Amino acid sequence: MSLRFAPAASDAVALHVIPQEDAAAWIKTLPEATAAWAQASGFTGAIGQTLSLPATAEWPALAAAGYGNAATRKRGRFALAAAAVKLPKGTYRIAGGISDDQLEIEALGWLLASYRFDRYKTIAPMEAYLVAPDGVDVARIEAIANGEALTRTLINTPASDMGPPDLEQAARDLAAQHDARIEVTVGDDLLAANLPMIHAVGRAADRAPRLIDMRWGDTGPTLTLVGKGVCFDTGGLNLKPGASMGLMKKDMGGAAAVLGLAHMIMATGARIQLRVLIPAVENSVAGNAFRPQDILTSRKGLTVEINNTDAEGRLVLADALTLADEGKPDQIISMATLTGAARVAVGPDLAPYFSDNPQFVAALEASAENVADPVWRLPFHDPYEAMIEPAIADLDNAPSGGFAGCITAALFLRRFVTGSNYAHFDIYGWQPVAAPARAKGGVGQGTRALLDALDRILTK
């Protein structure tokens, strides 16, 4: 689906966005009968409240949306979206009440609130449409909204319709939309291309593993995005219990995130030479599945002892990261639904990330605050390096003990890149409970912050 602002219309209803502390005073400005109606309706300006007022001889038709107070807005994001979904069918224009620095965020939230995943079920659309507020960058907001919609749809689609070939097709469609170049290496050709760990993880599945390689742009600094594309994760021979397998259609959330971010970059015409690498596999159970205690040799030449076949994401990312690093880009970013430990540490709402680059960290943290896309830095803690070094191979894919699982996974990935131009995001990719502008289901994390920060990151 395409998320767009409504065309400007002379009959668009004025929507007054009313902070809670201003509600009583605002009501007093209305004609007497209208004010009585507003009071009788119990409108207090709380987040999510709406009020529709018919036209009178003194006033045209208008509507109001509660905007809460500073404390309640701090506890969430996209406060206006909470009201947008409750407004009657119509076209609206914002008539004050939102500060200039929040206007683009709230306009974006309105578009995101209209997202529907309706591939398998008819879902009523949101019929409250917004005219773009004056002064906002309409094309950029729509690009961000549609990049986020792409990410959500890819994650929401079950593995029956989103296996490695389907993920490849989604990348091809995106490449065609933006005139990008794309190459895909499939099945046993991965061995010939020296991508052995991607092949090892995916070889047991009926749908062949593959590496998707998309490029766009010919000028500017170079950026390579690497996204984990495990389209379904059974855990392999270390089979997950049923409760842990239930959401594994979202294990390609890193791939979905980088494709959504790639759309944002290309649609906004960023002066960046972009490369997107996605190892797309299914971690399945069959006679040829890779086994616990196997030793795999990576593209980089490092050997990896397999102590848990359910720690497969870092294996496919390792080969892709090595390939990325060989191109010597100015910045490498990996995104993956990699560890449960990250969710235990920060919950589903924050996107934990790792970076050793102070300039990257400063730019990302500022952008995350500016665009309401929260992130949280975790450390590449060097003393834990010994935990990923087993007795008989260079690396261990699943250190015993259970301590610092997201950190040891990040340290594992860092072994396959050189320099400090690498950042890793261990995202959840799922909204467990519906919130303003975020339906329950797949969700992007960290991508809007990255888009906002990229100019500063790549021109440091």
TrEMBL record:
SUPFAM superfamilies: Macro domain-like, Zn-dependent exopeptidases. Keywords: Aminopeptidase, Hydrolase, Manganese, Protease. The keyword Secreted does not apply. GO terms for molecular function: manganese ion binding; metalloaminopeptidase activity. The keyword DNA-binding does not apply. Gene3D superfamilies: Leucine Aminopeptidase, subunit E, domain 1, Zn peptidases. InterPro entries: Leucine_aapep/pepB, Macro_dom-like, Peptidase_M17_C, Peptidase_M17_N_1. One of its GO terms (biological process) is proteolysis. GO terms for cellular component: cytoplasm. Residues 308-315 form the Cytosol aminopeptidase domain. Belongs to the peptidase M17 family. This is Leucyl aminopeptidase.
